[in-house]
Each structure stands twice: as structure tokens, then as C-alpha cells.
TrEMBL record:
Keywords: Hydrolase. It comes from Corallococcus soli. The keyword Disulfide bond does not apply. Belongs to the metallo-dependent hydrolases superfamily. TatD-type hydrolase family. InterPro entries: DNase_TatD-rel_CS, Metal_Hydrolase, TatD-like. This is TatD family hydrolase. PANTHER family: D-AMINOACYL-TRNA DEACYLASE, HYDROLASE. It comes from the Bacteria. CDD domains: TatD_DNAse.
Length: 265
């Protein structure tokens, strides 16, 4: 099992991060992908895969953090991101994307411009994109209809857009990841989407420390809860959990170009 989206560097893990990681391996995980949310985390994150190859990282700017960054520095941050990606060590570009409605400091025009920069870097460096989209799917679809496609692909993180929107992303070749909400009693749209996604495009995540699955909903999530997410997905798809776990692991390793060690190692 590979957790394709876990903010293990978040402050909420500061008190017990080593224990959280130990519980993840004990739960059967073979890999964890940590997506950056802002420039100040890029260098520290790049150190982690050197210490443990089971932990890999993506580098990017989350749209929710744009208000904390001066707009006039966007170009400088993207140039620095370009330089770091050229050095190697990151397996993806992101977390990046669109988040709505627009807030002060992050109007849609700025979000789109910064996302275009991330997509350009993904194309340049041959890396997949960890795509965040919340309540702005029409704007994202408009962008992706005109933007050159990253050859390494796009992963729709914690997808919640429903089946109809999913069909556009499927046609474009996107991968999809699902988190704790697939286990929530009121879940509808993500379950409908899950049923139409091609099996070879499906991976799993926790989005820890957020979106904890049942029975931990409302608590801090952690990567060791990934088996609960996979159990929820398997229930919706009507297939054995171990079969789905193996397939999503293989899909993740292929998407991230075998960056994660094989489970046997």
C-alpha cells in the first residue's frame, strides 16, 4: 500500500511523527508521498527520501497558501522550484491547483497563473502533477482544455467532483486518488465517481492529518489509516480489499516511475 498524499510534515505531527511513521509501516504501507504546500518546506522535504526511500516528496505551492506569499514573488518562487526540480529528488510537482471561492490575496487570475507555472515545470521535468481542486472544477477544466498536457500525467488528489466531471478528467488521462470521505456515511459524489474510473488510474491516500476515515472521523488522520480508506473503496467497487490494495500500489509505483521500492524490499 502506498499513501499517495500525506502531509506528514504538518505541525500536528510534531509531537509523535516517528511513532506515526512506525504505525504506518506496521499497518502494511510500503510508501508515503508528502506533497509540499509552500516554498519554505521544499528543502527540508527533499532531505526525507535520502533518509528513507519509502518516503517520497512532491514540490509545489498549494493555492490556499498563496495569500501568505507576496504576488510579486510568484515568478521568483517558480524559478526556485524549477532549479530544485532540476536537482532531482522530487517525484511530482505539487500540491498545486485551484481553490475557491477566491480569497483576498489569491484571486482566480493569480491562482491560474501560478498553476500554469506548475504545469510548465511538470512538462519540463517530466513529472506528474498532484492536483488540488475545490469548488473550481469549471475553471480547472477551462484551463486544461487549452494547456499543453504534462506527459507524466495528472493525479486528481482526494477527488470529490462526481462522476460527470470525472469523465472529462478520465478522457484527458488523469489518475484519481480517494481519501477518508469514501468511508463517510453521507458520501455520494465520490462514490459515484469511483465506480466510473478505470482500474489502472486509481490510487489511494489519507490526506493526513485531514479527512480521517471512519471510525476515526473528526480526529487527526495518519497514514496508518490507509487500510480503512482502501476497505471503503473496495466496498464501493465490490472487490476484495487485498486485490484493490495490490492494484493501487502497482498503479502508484507506475505513476511515480518506480520511485518507491518494491514491497519485497
Amino acid at each position: 500500500m502506498i499513501d499517495t498524499h500525506c502531509h506528514l510534515d504538518a505541525a500536528r505531527f510534531n509531537p509523535d511523527r516517528p511513532d506515526v511513521v512506525a504505525r504506518a509501516w506496521a499497518a502494511g504501507l510500503h510508501g508515503i508521498l508528502i506533497p509540499a504546500v509552500g516554498p519554505e518546506t521544499w528543502e527540508p522535504l527533499l532531505e526525507l527520501p535520502r533518509q528513507d526511500a519509502r518516503i517520497q516528496v512532491g514540490l509545489g505551492i498549494h493555492p490556499q497558501f498563496l495569500p501568505d506569499l507576496p504576488p510579486e514573488d510568484d515568478g521568483m518562487h517558480l524559478e526556485r522550484l524549477d532549479a530544485l526540480l532540476a536537482r532531482g529528488g522530487a517525484v511530482a510537482v505539487g500540491e498545486c491547483g485551484l481553490d475557491g471561492p477566491s480569497v483576498t490575496g489569491a484571486p482566480l487570475e493569480r491562482q491560474v497563473a501560478v498553476l500554469r507555472g506548475h504545469l510548465a515545470l511538470a512538462r519540463k521535468h517530466g513529472l506528474p502533477v498532484l492536483m488540488h481542486c475545490h469548488r473550481l472544477h469549471p475553471a480547472l477544466i477551462d484551463l486544461l482544455k487549452t494547456e499543453a498536457w504534462p506527459e507524466a500525467g495528472i493525479l486528481m488528489h482526494s477527488y470529490s467532483g462526481g462522476a460527470e466531471l470525472a469523465r472529462f478528467y478520465i478522457q484527458k488521462g488523469c489518475h484519481f486518488s480517494f481519501a477518508g470521505p469514501v468511508t463517510w456515511a453521507e458520501a455520494r459524489k465520490p462514490l459515484d465517481a469511483l465506480r466510473v474510473i478505470p482500474p489502472e488510474r486509481l490510487v489511494a491516500e489519507t490526506d493526513a492529518p485531514d479527512q480521517a476515515p471512519t471510525p476515526f472521523r473528526g480526529q487527526r488522520s495518519e497514514p496508518g489509516y490507509l487500510p480503512h480508506v482502501l476497505a471503503g473503496m473496495a466496498h464501493v467497487l465490490g472487490e476484495p480489499v487485498d486485490v484493490l490494495a495490490q492494484r493501487t500500489t502497482e498503479n502508484a509505483r507506475r505513476l511515480f516511475r518506480e520511485a518507491f521500492p518494491p514491497p519485497s524490499l
